[in-house]
Amino acid sequence: MAVFYDENTRTFKLDAGKASYAFTITPQGDIFHLYYGAHVSDGDLSHLQGRGGGASFCASPADAPEYNLDTSLQEYPGNGLGDFRVAAIAAEEANGASGVRLKYVSHKILQGKPPIPSLPSTYCNHADEAQTLAVATQDAHLGLRVTLYYCAFAQYSVITRWAIAENIGARPIKLQSVQSACVDFDESDYDMISLHGAWIRERAVERHALFHGTQSVGSKRGSSGHQLNPFAVICRKDATEQHGEAYGFQLVYSGNFCIEAEVSQMHTTRVTLGINPTDFAWMLMPGESFASPEAVLGYSDEGIGGLSRTLHRLYRNNLIRGTWKHKTRPVLINNWEATYFDFDADKLVAIAHEAAKTGIDLLVMDDGWFGVRNSDNCSLGDWTVNEDKLGCSLATLAERIKAEGLAFGIWFEPEMISPDSDLYRAHPDWALHIPGRESSLGRNQYVINMCLPEVRDNLFAQISAVLSSADISYLKWDFNRNLTEVFSAGLPPERGREVWHRYILGLYELLERLTEAFPDVLFESCSGGGGRFDLGMLYYMPQTWCSDNTDAVDRLKIQYGTSMAYPIASMGAHVQMNTIHSSRRTSLQFRASVAMAGTFGYELDLTKLSQDDIAEMKAFNEEFRKWQPLIATGDFYRLESPFEGAHTAWMFVAADKSKALLSYFCTFETKNDWRHLLRLQGLNPTARYHVSGYDFILSGDTLMRGGLRMPKQQGDAACVNVMLEACAKLEKTR
Ligand code: GLA
User: Is residue 65's pLDDT more than 50?
Assistant: First the structure.
C-alpha cells in the first residue's frame, strides 16, 4: 500500500519508492503539510504540525483563532484570506472579490493512476505500479470544488500531483491561478538548481542558495522555451551528484509555466509549479471544470545524479508511449546542415547512397520540400510536395531512398503559417492576431491559431495526406518562434486570457490524433533546436532535437544539462560537419562519442567526405550498435561536469550492472595535468570487470573508490570510450 490514512488523526501518508510525504486535516478542514523526505515508518506524523501560530500583522480565520494561514505549512493554499505567500490557487467571484480557502470534504484511494482530461501525463503499465489519492476540497462561499490528486509510484521515489477545479455553485468563477502542486518545506537552508539558456546554448546548469522572497523560473512565450526549462531542483546545500537530498520539480506541460520558490518570514520554503499565472485566467461557468497539468515531484537521497536516474526511468517507462517506446531507434542522417534549402531528390539519394555504406538507417528530408519554399520566407501551411523541386513524387523519392537501404523521414512545422502561403491567403484569420493591430513576424512567419478546430482539422488532413502518400517512418515536428498577438476571435472577452492554454490543448489534441493515426511513425519534437524540450512533448514524441548547435564541445554542456531532467534516449544528437555554427575542428571520434550520448545520427553532406571518412564512420557505427541498448536503457552517471573545467565524463550502467560504458572527454589540453583520475560510479562493488583498452580486470569497488586513470590526452577535444564488462573469472589483477 502506498497511501495510508489514519482516521483518528485525519492524517495521510504516501510512500513512494524511498520517499514519504504526509499531510493532515485540521478540525476546521484546512489541509496542512507535515513531511516530505526520506521514507519514515510511522503512518501518523501529526506531531510534526508545529507551525501556524500567530505572527504580528497576520490574521487568523474566524473559525481558527489558534492558527493563521500565513505561517502554516499548507498543501494547496488559496489567495486573499490570510496566506500572503504565493498561492496555489487564486480565484475571483462574479462581484470582483478575490479569495479562496479550500477545506477538506472527502477522499478516495484509487489503484493505479487515472489520466488527466485532455492533457499528457505519466501512466501506469499495470495498476499495481501506483496508487492515487484524490482529496476533494471545497470553498463553499465560492461554490468551488477542487480535487487534489497525488499519485505515489511504488518503485520510484516519485509523487505526481495535479488539481481539478469544478464550479459546483450557481455563479461564474474566474480562476486566476491553478497551480499543479505546492510543497511547503519547514526549512529554507536549500540550494535551487535550474536550467537556463538561449538558442544554440540550451539548458546550462545554474545553482544558487535560496534567499528570502521569491525566486522563479518560467516562460511567458507560449512554449516552454530555450531560456528556462520547466524543471528545478531544491537540494540540501551539501548535496552533490552522488550524495545528499535533492527534490526535483517538473511539469508535464509545453506552454507558459512558472516554478517558484518562496522563502518566508518564518524561514519556511514554499515551492509552487504550474501554468504561469501571468497572462492566465479561466472562466469556470457552473458545472464546468478545469484540469491543471501534472507536476512530477522526485526525491533522491543519492544526490542530484540519483534524482536524474529516477526521473529517466519514470519517463522511459511511464511517460513515453507507443511503438518506439522500447524499440531500437534508427541512426539517422538529416540533410539540413548538409544542404539547407538547396536539394533535390538526386542530391538526397546521393547522400543516402553514401549513408548506406556506413550503416545509417534513415534519411530525413528537412525543411524545403513543400509549397515553393526555397528559403524561410514562404509556404508554411502549404503542406503539398514540391515535385518540381524534388524532380519526382514523394512516393518515388521514398522508394529510391529505400532502394539504397534506408528508411525515409520528413520535416514539418505545422503550427506556423507564412504570410506568403496559399493557406494564409485563403484564411488570414487562422493566424494568431489582434484585430486592428499589426502582427509581429518571427522568422518571416506567424503562429497558426491552434485553438480553432477547423485549423486542427485542416492540419490533420494535410499531414495525414503526406504521411499516407509515401513510405514515411519518421516525422520531425518543428516550432520556430514564440507566440505574440495571442488572441482568438470568437471567444468572449472574459475568456481572452484562456488562449495561451487553449493553444496548448489544441496542440495536444492534434498530436493525439496524429500519433494514434500513425502509430508506427517515429516523431521527433524540435523548436529551433531545443526550445520545447519538455515532458508534454515527450509524451507524444519519444525524442526531441536538443539544439541547433551541433558543435561537439558545446554539446557536452547542452547534453549534460539536459540529462538532469530528461532520459538520454530522448535527446536528439547528431554528428556535424565541423563547420556549422562553429570554427572549432574536432575529430569524428570526438563528435560521434558526444552524439552517441543521445539518439545518435548525422547531419552533414556525406557526398563531400572521403572514402576514408566513410570507412571511419562505418567503424564507429558498428561500435555504436554494440553500445546502443546500454546507452538507451542504462542508468546514466555524470562523473565530471563540462561546466567546471576541461574534463567531462559520464557513464552508462546496465540495470543488472553487468556492463558499463565510460566516456571521457578532454576539451582542451592542460599542461602538467596528465593521467586524470576518474572515480567510477554505479558498478557492482563485488563484481570484477574487464576494462577495455587497459589490460586488466578490477573489482567494482576498486574502480569506484580507487578510480581509473585516463590515458593522457594529446591536443584539444580528445576522448576515450571504455567498456566495462563483468566477468566470472579473474584473469589478472593489479
Ligand atoms: C529549425 C530546426 C533545424 C531545421 C530548421 C529548418 O531551426 O531546429 O533543425 O529543421 O528549423 O528550417
Answer: yes
